[in-house]
Write a structure and sequence with these properties.
The complex is a heterodimer of chains A (197) and B (275). Chain A has 197 residues and is of the alpha+beta class. Chain A is built from 5 helices and 7 strands; from the N terminus they run αβββααββαββα. Chain B is built from 5 helices and 17 strands. Classes of the chains: A alpha+beta (197), B alpha+beta (275). Chain A: One of its GO terms (cellular component) is nucleolus.
């Protein structure tokens, strides 16, 4: 669970610069920059905007590892490359769905399919599934879940913001119901693919 | 889908196991469980847990079902691990219940013992050639594994040559090993492939389709131009015709075969036969 305080605690130093939020009216997130960190290329820089970058990759990796039958391919690495074409909200859920479809397309043996669902809770406590960028920004809490296809079990959850325990259960139940739609879409699109042959 | 959804509205019983017999030739997804015919009686109309009382337990047939690619045994059920169409083959005779497998479309090859593949020699180290077969590891090929090869009479294999051989060792724990002779010591078509011609890559599903006994594509292609063709189960095809242009035409046809229907294919062949 990443709270808003964590963004400021993670400080990038050693020749880097960072900007802190200038005040309550500033709408930009915390960012940090480091230059000349690789010796081989002529120039290199790393720019971190918000703290979500590396943890998102770790979340997707953990979900894939839980589902892929790695024991059938020892001493082998499976690389998943995700490229964001456009971000219209619920980016992590979209990445999870894309990763699952790519693994199925590659023929990697898996014990189940998985999907990602994002919920946003706004200040009234209303639950919105699959929020847009605007809804995510205005929400009090944003929760993303990865669910598996066999029994809708929870594979991964990441949350940001304030919410109560009852609201967490409510979001989880809504996500489980919504995952039915996603899995039905998977089935339809895969059937369409195989109907051509 | 940006509206609130009432929670708990739908039942979450999506993971119910289905009888394998009823799902034949349909698309199955990873995570589904399939029941074998033997277990169908147990899960029958009586509901979960009710077993029909059998008075002659000895007469109950014990089927031995073989679990093919894309399926894994999970308890006494089959777990689907790849997406594709479920197929079944009846055994001709005997007490086994046949083979179940999943026909999936895949580009990546995983070495299987007994498969005939086309490999490219990438290195020569001592007595072993390292051959790239498209898997996660290069396969090893001993110089004695050619017809008529002895320690004095080494085969003429250089780095970059194409080899047609079969796997004798191919499992997930060891490096794959291939040979270019069969069990009697004869080459049987295996060995170094000639220097001309074109090697190209297609999906594994297309290779299986082309190698099926009742495939007309190869016969039609053969009527078009005289050609030499080698199919590797690792998705590689080597083709050679009289001229470079004919070779390229054949390569394009075979690659496009995957997406064309039979009528479109016949049209293209007719057009090529005229010109």
């Amino acid at each position: 669970m990443e709270g808003p305080m964590r963004a400021d605690a993670k400080v990038c130093s050693e020749g880097g610069t960072e900007s802190s939020p200038r005040g309550p009216g500033c709408s930009l997130r915390h960012f940090a920059c480091e230059q000349n960190l690789l010796s081989r290329p002529d120039g290199s820089a790393s720019f971190l905007q918000g703290v979500a970058e590396k943890s998102r990759e770790r979340l997707i990796r953990n979900t894939c590892e839980a589902v892929v039958l790695g024991a059938l391919h020892p001493r082998t690495s499976i690389t998943v490359v995700l490229q964001v074409v456009s971000d219209a909200g619920s980016l992590l859920a979209c990445c999870l769905n894309a990763a699952c479809m790519a693994l199925v397309d590659a023929g990697v043996p898996m014990r189940a399919l998985f999907c990602g669902v994002t919920c946003a809770l706004d200040s009234d406590g209303t639950l919105v599934l699959d929020p847009t960028v605007k809804q995510e920004k205005e929400a009090r809490a944003v929760l993303t879940f990865a669910l598996d296809s066999v029994e809708r079990k929870l594979l991964m959850s990441t949350t940001k913001g304030l919410y109560s325990d009852a609201e967490l259960q409510q979001c989880l139940a809504a996500a489980q119901a919504a995952s039915q739609h996603v899995f039905r879409f998977y089935r339809e699109s895969l059937q369409r693919r195989y109907s051509k042959s | 889908m940006a509206e609130a959804v009432p929670f708990g509205a739908e039942s979450l019983a999506g993971g119910r196991a289905r009888a394998a017999r009823r799902v034949l030739d349909q698309v199955v997804l990873p995570g589904e469980e399939l029941l074998l015919p033997e277990q169908e009686d147990v899960e029958g109309p009586g509901g979960a847990g009710e077993r029909p009382l059998r008075l002659n337990a000895g007469a109950r047939s014990r089927l031995r079902v073989v679990c093919g690619p894309g399926l894994r045994r999970c308890g006494d059920r089959l777990l689907v691990t790849k997406c594709g169409r479920l197929r079944h083959k009846d055994p001709g005779s005997g007490s086994s219940g046949g083979v179940y497998w999943v026909d999936s479309q895949q580009k990546r090859y995983v070495p299987v013992k007994g498969d005939h593949v086309i490999g490219i020699v990438t290195a020569k180290s001592g007595d072993i050639f390292k051959v790239d077969v498209g898997g996660s590891e290069p396969a090893s090929l001993s110089y004695l594994a050619f017809e008529g090869a002895t320690k004095r009479n080494r085969p003429n294999v250089q780095v970059g040559d194409l080899i047609y051989g079969q796997f004798v060792v191919a499992n997930k724990d060891m490096e794959p090993e291939m040979v270019c002779i069969d069990s009697c010591g004869r080459a049987n078509g295996m060995g170094v492939i000639g220097h001309d011609g074109l090697l190209f890559k297609v999906t594994l599903g297309l290779i299986r389709k082309l190698l099926a006994p009742d495939c007309e594509i190869i016969q039609e292609v053969g009527r078009l131009y005289p050609l030499e063709i080698v199919f590797g189960m690792n998705g590689r095809i080597w083709v050679k015709a009289k001229t470079i242009q004919q070779t390229l035409i054949l390569a394009n046809i075979l690659e496009a075969c995957e997406h064309m229907t039979a009528d479109q294919r016949k049209q293209i062949f007719a057009r090529l036969a005229e010109s």
